[in-house]
Amino acid sequence: MMKHAWDSYAEYAWGADELRPITKAGTHFSATGGLSSTGVTIVDSLDTLFIMGLMDEFHKARQWVATSFKFEGDFSVSVFETNIRIVGGFLAAFALTGDELFKVKAKTVVDKLMPAFNTSTGIPCPTVNIGRKNGGQCEEHKAVLAEAGSLHLEFAYLSEITGDNAYLDKVQIVRQALRKLVNSKGLYSNDIGFKSLETYRDEFSMGGRGDSFYEYLYKSYLLSGKQDTDALDMYEHAIEAQTKHLLRTSKTGLKYFGQIHCGSCDVQMRMEHLGCFVGGTLALSARDTKDERGYLQLGADIAHTCRQSYQRTPVKLGPDDFEFNGGDLDAVSGIFSVKAHFLRPEVVETYFYLWRITKQQKYRDWAWEVVQALEKHCHTATGYSTIHDVYDSNPRLADNQPSYFLAETLKYLFLIFSDDSLLPLDAWVFNTEAHPLPVHGKK
């Protein structure tokens, strides 16, 4: 599957950010405003190619990075997307190979992002113009919790391998600023101010806009060799608050994290595919404790719920969000839901962690169900495509092969069926784009 997706990209979209498999053409990634291509699929795929032993493909990608990768021009980029995909991709490639080229490229990109942190709070502006010395004028009025809180792993590792603590210092300031934004219930709002410490809306969720903030808190603790106890403390309090105020059980017994969209609103009986990552993070955080909070079981419960969102569609692939309206309508999209399947990784990510931690065969079985469904409904002659409606038994293709499909979805599926000695969990931490970074002190 990886070779088919990669070869199709290489033939029809080489150097572009992503492949349009139906059109057989490349496309710019929206994180660059559609104004320039930085070969996102190439950089995002480096470590997957290496891990899978596709060395001819890896060396072709490395050669492109050496001769053609450019991160320059008068345009703005998303700090978050650039960090998790491009910086994360380079750092993982360096960690796996020791090739100095990738370290140099990672540092070059991050240095172009640094002006984003020149705000009164230290919370970075969501976008930065990489062609202007001061990063350009920040037009946004607010930042997103997940974006501001998902920089720590990459910046901390870059400081470690370069010996320059400037990168770690920036994200430490971000963390302390975010810590001041927690409300009286222990919840963090998804919309925050980066020019002044304030929340813009009382919107809380474990899904998009919040998700990887919680993931990075625990993983920062792991990456530091369990020295960053501040991150662990924030994680435990945040999960405790989310569990107390947002965790719900449907009438049919499905557990899920709901959402709040205003301070006085009830919890919405709705969950996003993006939020399915939390099953794996909960299971991961149960490994190093006595698990008095029952995180492993809760992670397994979330995995079961997210699988039901797949099983209750004719194509056996889940929608982008789903609701809990009782009986057969639990874990099924509602009228205003997004019924598309975007080849996202979060469900198989959770299967991966639960397989590694519990060794229960069902998680491999569930992953194989996903493989079969992807092959049947998303496979095209020239790559893999997202689909418009998972409730259509013959779904229409959406003509998009996201870079994260190669970076995350296929990598997690591959690792589920690999030996534990390949990227063991006590030695590697995966960023939110599934790029593995080595735990401090491990070789």
UniProtKB/TrEMBL annotation:
Entry's Gene Ontology molecular function annotations: calcium ion binding; mannosyl-oligosaccharide 1,2-alpha-mannosidase activity
Coiled-coil stretches noted in the UniProt entry, renumbered to this chain: none
Pathway assigned in UniProt: Protein modification; protein glycosylation
Subcellular location(s) per record: Golgi apparatus membrane
Cofactors required: Ca(2+)
Keyword vocabulary terms for this entry: Calcium, Disulfide bond, Glycoprotein, Glycosidase, Golgi apparatus, Hydrolase, Membrane, Metal-binding, Signal-anchor, Transmembrane, Transmembrane helix
Taxonomic superkingdom: Eukaryota
Annotated positions binding Ca(2+): T432
Reaction(s) catalysed by this chain's protein: N(4)-(alpha-D-Man-(1->2)-alpha-D-Man-(1->2)-alpha-D-Man-(1->3)-[alpha-D-Man-(1->3)-[alpha-D-Man-(1->2)-alpha-D-Man-(1->6)]-alpha-D-Man-(1->6)]-beta-D-Man-(1->4)-beta-D-GlcNAc-(1->4)-beta-D-GlcNAc)-L-asparaginyl-[protein] (N-glucan mannose isomer 8A1,2,3B1,3) + 3 H2O = N(4)-(alpha-D-Man-(1->3)-[alpha-D-Man-(1->3)-[alpha-D-Man-(1->6)]-alpha-D-Man-(1->6)]-beta-D-Man-(1->4)-beta-D-GlcNAc-(1->4)-beta-D-GlcNAc)-L-asparaginyl-[protein] (N-glucan mannose isomer 5A1,2) + 3 beta-D-mannose; N(4)-(alpha-D-Man-(1->2)-alpha-D-Man-(1->2)-alpha-D-Man-(1->3)-[alpha-D-Man-(1->2)-alpha-D-Man-(1->3)-[alpha-D-Man-(1->2)-alpha-D-Man-(1->6)]-alpha-D-Man-(1->6)]-beta-D-Man-(1->4)-beta-D-GlcNAc-(1->4)-beta-D-GlcNAc)-L-asparaginyl-[protein] (N-glucan mannose isomer 9A1,2,3B1,2,3) + 4 H2O = N(4)-(alpha-D-Man-(1->3)-[alpha-D-Man-(1->3)-[alpha-D-Man-(1->6)]-alpha-D-Man-(1->6)]-beta-D-Man-(1->4)-beta-D-GlcNAc-(1->4)-beta-D-GlcNAc)-L-asparaginyl-[protein] (N-glucan mannose isomer 5A1,2) + 4 beta-D-mannose
Main location: Golgi
Keyword field contains Hydrolase: yes
Membrane topology: Single-pass type II membrane protein
Residue pairs linked by disulfide bridges in the UniProt entry: C276-C306
GO cellular component, one term: endoplasmic reticulum
Gene Ontology BP terms: carbohydrate metabolic process; N-glycan processing
EC annotation from Swiss-Prot or TrEMBL: 3.2.1.-
Family: Belongs to the glycosyl hydrolase 47 family.
Protein name: alpha-1,2-Mannosidase
